[in-house]
Amino acid sequence: PSLLVIDVRNDDNGGGRIAKSLHIPDGETTFCPSEVVGIAFRANCGSICNALTRGRKDKIVLHCMESARRGPRCAKRLLDYIEETKANYDNVCKKSKKKDENRSNDDLNNQCCANDDCGFKDWKPRIYVLWGGADLWIRRFWDDRELVEDFDPEYWSFGGDDHNKIPVNSNDNVLRGSHCDYLRPVDQPQTEWSSAGRGMKK
Fold it and tell me: What's the pLDDT at 54?
């Protein structure tokens, strides 16, 4: 498949994830755009990859719990990185031909360009942010194992043996409730389908 889904949640990523997604947490030291490019463009996946994520990706979808801040922030960082890399493409390819033992594994030269014909300059991935994030996705599809992996009702207020579906309205199959590890920032509005979690982040 040409789609790569990246989950940038932090400690609130327990209890289920979008099927076939990769977990690369938000943060200056944890979310590395060059790593994402290495996975999406060259499928140079290393230890975090599996057979399902191999192959060049033309669509990259990022999300956090509600895709309100972390998901969009990481998407912007990735987009800026790709645009900056393309702008400096010629210099990068020249450097990549030189042997340099001091280059790190995260170096752009290693991740993107092995030579002038690598095709990176012509690669035009579409970058998306998943509306509603993992929160809305899991509320809708928690009981579909093809869409949600490792769902654990202990983290949510639904999905247990005594579960009763409580839709937001009669035309929707979205469940109310909250994730026990998610703290919504105090200035981030509550969504129509969920409460704030176990507290409000100050």
Answer: 57
